[in-house]
Every structure is written in structure tokens, then in C-alpha cells.
Amino acid sequence: MGCVVRVLGSCTSSLESAKSSGYSLVENYSNVNLNVPEKDGVVANPIMQNGLLTTTLDFLQTSTAVKQLKDLRALSLKIISLVLNKYGDHDFGYEFWDLFFTSVKPLVDGFKQEGSSSEKPSSLFSCFVAMSRSHNLVSLLYREKNLVADIFSILTVTTASEAIISCVLKFIENLLNLDSELDDEDVTIKKVLLPNIETLICSLHCLFQSCNATKR
To answer: Rounded to two decimals, what is the model's pTM?
Structure first.
């Protein structure tokens, strides 16, 4: 698992470097003229991408590399998700989780968007659900200040799919189950729930008041 999380960290670092350099993944190449003239064997048609002058060939090569990095990051998260769901009580150590959260921070920052853009829960979401049902891992959820609130708030996204809504509700159920199982002196779960209780109530109210609530 240490190797997997290091690969995850490397992918994130490379993607952030590419982003800061002005490159972005092209979803549609239809506006790129591939029939460009060459001069002395070098592609001569430049493209201005976010202020960075590059050739068409360089642009496409970088776009391909970015896509490969995103695919490798997704695979790394899928492996971590599978392991967490099977061995949720294992102690992976501080260094593992420090690198994990550093690596997924760009994804966490826009996590709420998953509710409106994804049909199925991502591997990262599956990791958080696994944490929500583990006595040993639940404390990790408040490492990112707005993470739990953002997950609760997905219930307010009217375009969220059934699969995403079910995953959020499972996340909530896991937290409530842990709260009932742990001793009153154990404040771990309370540190997760209490700061976000208002968001939870408002999000559930919004869900049940929505026009699709009866279908769910």
C-alpha cells in the first residue's frame, strides 16, 4: 500500500505541475488542425494555450500524458478503496495517511461537484465511506475541514444520481452507527458530527422536500 500511495502522490504532483504550466486535458480535438505544415521537420503551427506558446504536437503529447496520469491516479485510488473496504481496521500509519490526504486534496477541494457530475460514486468517495464505518479510521474525516460538510451537502444537489445519494446516506448511517456503538467518553465521532450537524439536518430536509424525494 505504501507503493500505491506514493504512485498516487507522484501523479498528483505531476498533474499540478502540468496545470501550473498552463496545460489542460483536451476532451475534444476537433478544433485542432492536425494537417499542419512542417519546416525542417518541425511542426510550425503553434497553439496559444493559457498564454503558453506550444506546438500542436507538444500540445497533444502533453494532453495524452495528463490523461494517462489521471487514469493512473484513478487506478491507485481504486486499489486503496478496495483495501480499505476489506481491511478497514488495519493501521496504515501516519505517513501513509499524510501522503494520501496531500495527494487527494485537489479532488477534495471540488468534492461536492461529484454530486452533480458523476453517475456513480468515485473510488475516493468509497474511501471516505470505508472510513465512516471504521472505529480506527473515522477520525481521519476531520483532517479536511469542509470534507464532511461537503459530503452532506451533496444531498442538496438536485441533479445527483440515485447511486450518489445512496452513498451519502450510507456515509451518514455509518457515522450514526459508530456514534451509538462508541462509549460516551469517546469523542472521536462527535468531532466529526457535531460541527456539521446543522449542515446534515438542512441537507436531509432539502432532500426530503425535493420533488424527487418520493422516488428515493
So the answer is: 0.78
